């Protein structure tokens, strides 16, 4: 019997930490790795060392991600503005935007997580925390 193993990562922005989300036999896991990266650099890192930036596809995944995040930390996820798709190219059905978001203030085409809500941000911003 073969097992499928899939990992994706999301990046936090204020405490130099990356979080990697993986699934093995249906179980998802999250890990922190310290660094400071823009969205593009975070995506590249995740694709080189894991699979991709994390996708939060429903409320149960949002709850699972929230359980490993440091409170009040900004976290890169794999969502980007092109009809808001995930970094693997799949459509995003679940978008738990914060109040007034996405607002595209200053051409914000990537998303991060903060306080269990999504916010659009400039993809070139570099932040320290990741999940």
UniProtKB/TrEMBL annotation:
Pfam families: Lectin_C. SMART domains: CLECT. Residues 30-124 form the C-type lectin domain. PANTHER family: C-TYPE LECTIN DOMAIN FAMILY 20 MEMBER A-RELATED (PTHR45784), C-TYPE LECTIN DOMAIN FAMILY 4 MEMBER K-LIKE-RELATED (PTHR45784:SF3). This is C-type lectin domain-containing protein. It comes from Neogobius melanostomus (round goby).
């Amino acid at each position: 019997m073969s097992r499928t193993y899939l990992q994706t990562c999301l990046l936090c922005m204020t405490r130099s930490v990356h979080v990697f989300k993986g699934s093995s036999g249906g179980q998802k896991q999250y890990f922190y790795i310290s660094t400071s990266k823009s969205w593009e650099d975070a995506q590249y890192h995740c694709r080189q060392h894991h699979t991709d930036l994390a996708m939060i596809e429903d409320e149960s995944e949002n709850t699972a991600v929230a359980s490993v995040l440091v409170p009040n930390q900004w976290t890169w996820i794999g969502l980007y503005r092109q009809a808001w798709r995930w970094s693997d190219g799949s459509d995003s059905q679940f978008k738990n935007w914060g109040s007034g978001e996405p607002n595209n203030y200053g051409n914000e085409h990537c998303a991060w997580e903060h306080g269990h809500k999504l916010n659009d941000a400039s993809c070139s911003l570099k932040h320290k925390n990741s999940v």
